[in-house]
Amino acid sequence: MGGEGGVAAELVIFDCDGVLVDSEVIYVEVERSMLADAGLPIERERYVRTYSAMPGAEWQAKLNEEFRQRTGAAAEDALFDRIRAQCKRGFEADLAQVPGARAALDVMDIPLCVASSSTEDELHWKLRHTGLHDLFDPHIFSTERVQNGKPAPDLFLHAARAMSVDPRNAIVIEDSVNGVAAGKAAGMKVIGFVAGGHCRNGHDEMLTTHGADLTVASFAALAGAIRDLATTKPVI
């Protein structure tokens, strides 16, 4: 049941994209392809490490910094609008829950919530579309509720406050470097989750290098990982 350095596990906070719903594989492939066509090719591993899980405005601003550095000018806003529209078409056609999500979540006996860089509308749509919304509603928190998105800790701290849990007694489930950084900055334990379709060889090592306390590769292994981080005495 864990030991030194564990937490009480009074709350599990799930990221959405790439953890609950298999959207990151769509985001990564669409975004990289369209950015390359616009003159900004980015190696896949660096793109996933740098840009995954950023809120939309920050993602666009950071990409524009790279556009300026490499091409001498920012991209047109219309490019990012086209990318978002193409991602939405991909979701409507192919978005599904990450394998095993519903079955594992149905039997978890600990409070759960979602904290995501998606907008409110996007987040609720993704969860409804994949049949997971009822497992979390009303404890669904979008980056729009805080000033600073991931990798800042604001969203996870907001979720813990809303759930009346000390951040030190919460466990975050994250698939991205930015999400892991946010969870650790919030003072939480973080499980790196590498079951999404975008996770290739080395993704687990990348998350561990950036602070994940441990990693798992399936929902079937998640309950055991939570137990491994848990203690029976809450932090007060």
From TrEMBL:
A Pfam family this chain is assigned to: Hydrolase
Name assigned to this protein: Phosphatase YieH
The entry's keywords: Magnesium, Metal-binding
NCBIfam families noted in UniProt: HAD-SF-IA-v3 (TIGR01509)
Top-level taxonomy: unclassified sequences, metagenomes, ecological metagenomes
Species whose genome carries this gene: hydrothermal vent metagenome
Entry-linked InterPro entries: Beta-PGM-like, HAD-like_sf, HAD-SF_hydro_IA, HAD_sf, PGP-like_dom2
Cofactor(s), names only, from the UniProt record: Mg(2+)
GO-annotated molecular function: catalytic activity; metal ion binding
